[in-house]
Structures are given as structure tokens and as C-alpha cells.
Specification:
Layout: E1 9-14, E2 30-34, E3 37-38, E4 41-42, H1 44-54, E5 59-66, H2 69-78, E6 85-92, H3 101-115, E7 119-123, H4 126-139, E8 144-147, E9 149-150, E10 155-160, E11 165-170, E12 177-181, E13 201-204, E14 237-241, H5 252-261, E15 264-267, H6 269-273, E16 294-298, H7 304-307, E17 315-320, E18 333-336, H8 339-349
Parallel strand pairs: 1-11, 2-5, 2-7, 5-6, 6-13, 7-12, 8-12, 14-15, 14-16, 16-17, 17-18
Antiparallel strand pairs: 3-4, 9-10, 10-11
């Protein structure tokens, strides 16, 4: 067993260095959460955003957009998700059925004009990273991204230097304060949806003045991974592979082990760039940030960009034939060995996931 840890430094500075000052920032009253939904259900990262918003001690409005029955099913579910939610705002239009950032950013701007929110929060997912900076530009404020802790309504903690240091940022700009939060830092307890809590009101957003100017982007297509494996961002177990697997055919060893353990498949950027797996399975600074209960890394050296995406995992197991690989410095358990021998033996001896 090889034990190790990476020391994190905390750096404090004021956001006034890059955020405009305004006396209006003293008013904090309500928070708007931009929520994602699919199949009539609020996505897990958005539930984390709601949980983060509750720490601001303000009333919460939830914004949902899209079209069709699934939108209204999601709104119905959201109305009883948390007692702090005072209202659910629904923008029902075909203009929002696709995740294009431009119309969504304009929607956030429109809703804020009528609501006057002190904070606007979204999960730091691909969707949130795409929409919130554009919304911030329209509102002429600077966003604070990838927040891992909310100290108070003005003060936030976020990682820098690929997670090797944490900085405390104090927002001194004008309202609204726009945040994206790292969902793994705000885990939602199981069975957190209280169906017995009083339901929030559901209101339609007035889109009569909405301008659908899409600029230079247009929707082409959207694909989803259709298999029995859990979603990578929310899985309790993640099995990841690196470039050492050599090709896409060998990567099926990772997939077979993930199926046996009931976990999700992850990969390094090198494996994705080599075409072994799709890019939505990439874990790391430029991929997905995960924090499962168990993370098993096969043939992963431990580049800082990859560690930034998984170092918050509860238990990290590393298998690598190089005893000096950096991954062993953060692993709770390490095995120096050939993954092409280790994985088949695990597949043979591990029981099926029930």
C-alpha cells in the first residue's frame, strides 16, 4: 500500500482587483438558480447548485427552460425539491429546447431584469460553463467560477493552479453576483427531495420581449451515451484508464470491469485524444470533475491535469507498472503491476454487482 497526499495552500485576495466596485452590492435578498433537467427530472448538478444557494440565506427562484411535457414535469418536481425554493420560473419555448448558450444567456438577462436578483448560480457543468460567462457579459459583471465553498454572501473559495491551491475571493462588484459551483463540493444527501414539503409556486416567464438572435452559432445535433453504466459525474465508483491501454479494443477491459462493479468509465485526456473513448468520458481539468466513493486508475501516470479532476475521491486505487508514477503520491492504495494481468484477474475473482 502506498499512501500520499497533496498539500493545498490557501491564497486570499480581494476580487476588487478585477471586479468593478458598486455601492449597490450591499443589497442581498434573492438568488436565481439556473437548473438543467432531462426526462422530467432535475439533474444532480443542479440539485447541488440549489444546496449551495441555501447557504446564502436568501429566497431561491429556480429557472427552467425548454419545451414539451418533460419541462413541466421537471417544474413540478422542482417545486417540492427544497423548502427554500420560493418559486419556479418556467420558460416554455422551442427556442430553449437545445442547449445553445446565446438564447439561454439572454433568458437569464431577461429574468434578472424583472427579478433583480442578488445572486445567480449554476452548476459548473458544460452547460453552466457555456451559459454563465455570456450572461455575466450581458449583465456587465465578472463571474466567479468553480466555487467549492461559500463563506458568506460576498466571500467564496475556489481552486487555482489545477487544484494545488485554494483562493478566497471577496466579491465587491455590482449585483448580481454570478457563480458557478463545483457540484462535487456540494453533495446532495440521498432522498433529499421532500415530497411532503410545501410546494413552491410555478410561474411562466413572459417571453413577449425575448429576442432570438442566435449570433454566430446554431444547433447541429446532440448525442447521449445509451448504456447501463451510471453517469460519470454522479457515479459512486469510477474505473479510469490511460494511454497505457494502447487502443480502443483494450479499453473494453475497463468497461467490463466497470460493468461488474456497477461503476462508470473514465479516461485521461491522452486516452481520449488517441481515440480510445469518447471525450465525454474525460476526467481532469479540461474534462469532468468527479468525487466518487471509489476511484480506480489503471495505467494512469498522474499528470496534474488529471489529478485536478479526481483528487477529491474518497478512496483512490492506482495500478501502474511504474513504481515512481506520480499517481501513487495521491493514491490510498497502490499496486505496481501490469494492468493486462491485474484486470483479467479482477474480472475472474470479483463477484457480480447486484
Amino acid at each position: 500500500m502506498i499512501l500520499g497526499a497533496i498539500t493545498k495552500r490557501t491564497v486570499s485576495f480581494s476580487a476588487s482587483h478585477f471586479l468593478s466596485r458598486s455601492s449597490s452590492s450591499t443589497r442581498y435578498g434573492s438568488t436565481l438558480v439556473i437548473a438543467e433537467h432531462e426526462g422530467g427530472v432535475i439533474k444532480a448538478p443542479s440539485l447541488s447548485a440549489i444546496l449551495a444557494a441555501t447557504s446564502l440565506n436568501s429566497s431561491i427562484s429556480l429557472l427552467l427552460a425548454g419545451s414539451g411535457s418533460s419541462l413541466h414535469q421537471a417544474a413540478s418536481q422542482a417545486s417540492s425539491t427544497h423548502p427554500s425554493i420560493s418559486q419556479v420560473l418556467v420558460a416554455d419555448s422551442d427556442k430553449f429546447k437545445n442547449p445553445l448558450a446565446e438564447p439561454w444567456a439572454k433568458l437569464v438577462h431577461l429574468v434578472h431584469q424583472s427579478g433583480g436578483y442578488s445572486h445567480i448560480i449554476a452548476a459548473s457543468s458544460s452547460f453552466g460553463k457555456n451559459v454563465m460567462p455570456r450572461a455575466a457579459a450581458l449583465l456587465n459583471v465578472s463571474p466567479i467560477t468553480d466555487v467549492t465553498r461559500i463563506s458568506d454572501s460576498h466571500t467564496f473559495v475556489r481552486p487555482i493552479y489545477a487544484g494545488n491551491a485554494l483562493c478566497t475571493v471577496r466579491y465587491t462588484g455590482s449585483s448580481p453576483c454570478i457563480l458557478t459551483i463545483r457540484s462535487t463540493s456540494f453533495p446532495v444527501p440521498k432522498n433529499s427531495v421532500d415530497s411532503k414539503s410545501s410546494e413552491a409556486s410555478i410561474s411562466e416567464v413572459d417571453l413577449s420581449t425575448f429576442d432570438e438572435d442566435l449570433g454566430n452559432s446554431r444547433f447541429i445535433s446532440q448525442t447521449t451515451q445509451d448504456d447501463e453504466l451510471p453517469d460519470l459525474g454522479n457515479a459512486r465508483t469510477v474505473i479510469s484508464g490511460g494511454r497505457a491501454l494502447k487502443n480502443a479494443e483494450n479499453f473494453k477491459l475497463i468497461e467490463n470491469l466497470a460493468k461488474k462493479l456497477g461503476g462508470a468509465v473514465g479516461a485521461t485526456r491522452a486516452a481520449v485524444d488517441a481515440g480510445f473513448v469518447a471525450n465525454d468520458l474525460q476526467v481532469g481539468q479540461t474534462g469532468k470533475i468527479v468525487a466518487p466513493e471509489l476511484y480506480i486508475a489503471f495505467g494512469i501516470s498522474g499528470a496534474i491535469q488529471h489529478l485536478a479532476g479526481m483528487r477529491d475521491s474518497k478512496v483512490i486505487v492506482a495500478v501502474n507498472n511504474d513504481a515512481d508514477a506520480p499517481i501513487f503520491q495521491v493514491a490510498d492504495y497502490g499496486l505496481v503491476g501490469d494492468l493486462f494481468e491485474v484486470i483479467p484477474e479482477l474480472l475472474e475473482k470479483l463477484p457480480e454487482k447486484k
